[in-house]
Specification:
Layout lengths: L3 E2 L9 E9 L2 E10 L2 E8 L17 E7 L5 E3 L20 E2 L2 H13 L1 H7 L9 H16 L12
Parallel strand pairs: 1-7
Antiparallel strand pairs: 2-3, 3-4, 4-5, 5-6
Length: 159
């Protein structure tokens, strides 16, 4: 039920390449970068001079239309561009969040993944199980699923 906020400083060391391709009819250029243990290929267009992209990616001289890691486990592809009215602006109020550092957030997520039911109960949410065995089975099932997770940011790799 809690919302957490942490700030991080990211500096992408992009390498530009001469390759080009069309995405949504825009001429895109290739760039590569290593970030959090993965090697990424990005395709961006100078025709839209916005230094932004999906997830945390930014820093190129144009909008990132497509970006994927070398194993293609993560692949972001723009589906369209449309003009939005100013009525659809989002407002972010940091007062609604608990300020933490990344390590504390990761510890909280690990605790949640270790036993989500315990975390819910500690936060005041009451869960009704017909018996303790049902509760234990649910926790074990969740732990098994978490063994096969494939995070976008690999631990211990801060490049």
């Amino acid at each position: 039920k809690d919302k957490f906020l942490y700030e991080e400083s990211i500096n992408f060391n992009w390498t530009n390449h001469s390759n080009t391709k069309k995405v949504l009819g825009y001429e895109c250029k290739k760039a590569t970068v290593r970030f959090k243990g993965r090697n990424y290929t990005a395709w961006y267009s100078n025709e839209i001079p916005i230094s932004s992209g999906p997830y945390k990616f930014f820093g190129l001289p144009g909008l990132i239309f497509e970006i994927y890691d070398s194993k293609k486990e993560y692949h972001f592809l723009i589906k369209g561009i449309e003009s939005m009215s100013n009525k659809n602006t989002l407002t972010f109020n940091p007062k609604n969040y608990i300020q933490v550092n990344r390590k504390d957030l990761e510890k909280t997520i690990e605790k949640l993944n270790e036993n989500p039911i315990k975390m819910l109960e500690q936060s005041g949410i009451s869960l009704d199980f017909s018996n303790e065995l049902q509760k234990k089975s649910l926790v074990n099932s969740h732990k098994e699923k978490m063994k096969n997770k494939n995070p976008i940011e690999l631990k211990g790799n801060d490049e």
